[in-house]
Amino acid sequence: MANKIKLARVEKGLTQAQLAQRVNATRQTIGLIEKSKYNPSLNLCIAIANELGKSLDDLFWEES
């Protein structure tokens, strides 16, 4: 999950701080999500996916 979010963020040319501001979170929260040390709320997941132009499955689905 984490690397998918970071890759999508970098592809969009956004810093953690810029993404955080756009989804009404803190830079620290985005960093923890990217390191898989924080489970975001569904609303935050949706906001991140929308901002990055990805689906929830693209960013958050764990493939086994």
Brief summary:
The chain has helices at 2-11, 16-22, 27-34, 42-52, 56-60. The protein contains 5 helices and no strands.
Q: Can you walk through the features of this model?
A:
The protein is mainly alpha-helical and 64 residues long. It has a single domain (2-56), classed as lambda repressor-like DNA-binding domains (434 Repressor (Amino-terminal Domain)), CATH 1.10.260. 64% of the residues lie in helices and 0% in strands. The protein contains five helices and no strands. The protein has helices at residues 2-11, 16-22, 27-34, 42-52, 56-60. Helix 2 crosses helix 3. The protein is globular. The model has no long low-confidence stretch (mean pLDDT 94).
For the sheet with most strands, the description reads:
none
Name of the CATH class:
Mainly Alpha
pLDDT under 50 segments (min length 5)?
Answer: none
Strand content: under 5%
**Oligomeric grouping of the chains:** single chain
Report the count of strand segments: 0
Total count of domains: 1
How much helicity do the residues have? Answer: 55-70%
Give the SSE order as H and E letters.
HHHHH
CATH architecture assignment name: Orthogonal Bundle
Distance between the termini: 12 Å
Query: Which structural category do the helix and sheet elements fall into?
Result: mainly alpha
Shape: globular
Helical stretch tally: 5
Average pLDDT number: 94
Would you identify the CATH H-level superfamily? Answer: lambda repressor-like DNA-binding domains
Write down the CATH topology: 434 Repressor (Amino-terminal Domain)
Rg, nearest Å: 10 Å
Domain HTH cro/C1-type: 5-59
Organism: Virgibacillus chiguensis
GO molecular function: DNA binding
Protein name: Putative transcriptional regulator
